[in-house]
């Protein structure tokens, strides 16, 4: 019986490729001779030292970057800015609240005074019936309800309920917003809305649509051409609505003059003229004043002129931009009754009265 002896062939050294490898590294799975196995261990030791040094460097960077002073400073700035905004909001809320209650009282006082005058007149003239009693009772109940609502209703508005800090502000009711005053009065007193139309005019103005539309045509006079309204206004509050039909390069004038003024061409030479050049300035007692105008007037826009004869004031409202202007009238220079006057600044300008 013959016995066959087999020998296992050893892997050569990974470094020198000579001799048999006597050491196999579990990490890289390579075989090394005696000499190079020692060198491989030294290489691993160097790599270990390198990783240890990187770990130490990282710890030093962590220690160095733990200074939070800069972040704390940022929080301090945010805190102060928030306090400033809160103080500003609180100050504005106090101002708005005082103004809200002032306007509310003025509104109620004016309405009650009008009702009181009506009662006194009816009592003196002995001109009243059960229907008047019913109307006055309804008015008094409505006023009482408005008064109680103004006292009990919270006027505050927190603008962002999802925010940690709610900036308080006062809610101004729509009926007390200044620019809506002519429209609000318009709705309350329809009897005082006159069916106005144009009347006496410069020759360069053409009237159409039953004298409701005025257009500047013909030769350029290098000045505005003007037209008066038909009605005279002695007392009460009246509203005249205009629509800008066509706007040339020049603007429009809308205002009043005393009813005795007869010549449209010389109206701007009298102290009785009051009103506004829409894109420019305002005129009081015949004199040009500072800039108080309506910018961004477009074709198709509606303009509302309000004449408050009792308070000697006129208002001009531009609903699209929510703009309201007013002028106090000196009745010594512009005595009642009044009439409206419209000036067309350039050829092609066209304006219409809306009834």
From TrEMBL:
Top-level division of the source organism's lineage: Eukaryota
Protein name: B box-type domain-containing protein
Protein species of origin: Adineta steineri
């Amino acid at each position: 019986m013959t016995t066959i002896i087999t020998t296992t062939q050893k892997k050569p050294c990974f470094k020198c490729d000579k001799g048999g490898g006597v050491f196999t590294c579990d990490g890289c799975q390579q075989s090394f001779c005696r000499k190079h196995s020692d060198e491989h261990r030294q290489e691993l030791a160097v790599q270990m030292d390198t990783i240890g040094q990187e770990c130490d460097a990282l710890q030093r960077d962590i220690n160095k970057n733990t200074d939070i002073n800069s972040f704390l400073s940022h929080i301090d700035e945010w805190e102060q800015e928030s306090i400033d905004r809160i103080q500003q909001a609180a100050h504005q809320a106090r101002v708005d609240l005082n103004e809200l209650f002032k306007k509310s009282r003025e509104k109620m006082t004016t309405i009650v005074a009008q009702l009181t005058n009506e009662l006194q007149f009816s009592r003196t003239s002995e001109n009243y019936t059960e229907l008047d009693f019913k109307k006055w009772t309804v008015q008094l109940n409505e006023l009482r309800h408005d008064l109680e609502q103004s006292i009990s209703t919270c006027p505050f508005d927190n603008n962002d309920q999802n925010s940690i800090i709610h900036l308080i502000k006062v809610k101004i009711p729509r009926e007390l917003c200044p620019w809506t005053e002519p429209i609000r009065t318009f709705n309350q007193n329809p009897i005082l809305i006159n069916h106005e139309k144009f009347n006496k005019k410069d020759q360069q103005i053409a009237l159409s649509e039953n004298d409701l539309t005025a257009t500047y045509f013909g030769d350029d006079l290098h000045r505005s051409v003007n037209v008066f309204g038909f009605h005279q206004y002695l007392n009460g509050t009246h509203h005249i609505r205009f629509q800008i039909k066509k706007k040339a390069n020049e603007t429009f004038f809308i205002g009043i003059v005393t009813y005795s003024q007869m010549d449209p061409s010389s109206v701007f030479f009298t102290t009785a003229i009051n009103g506004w050049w829409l894109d420019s300035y305002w005129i009081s007692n015949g004199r040009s004043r500072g800039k108080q105008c309506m910018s961004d007037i477009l074709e198709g826009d509606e303009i509302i002129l309000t004449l408050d004869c009792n308070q000697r004031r006129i208002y001009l409202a531009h609903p699209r931009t929510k703009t309201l202007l007013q002028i106090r009238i000196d009745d010594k220079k512009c005595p009642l009754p009044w009439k409206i006057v419209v000036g067309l600044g350039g050829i092609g300008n066209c304006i219409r009265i809306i009834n």
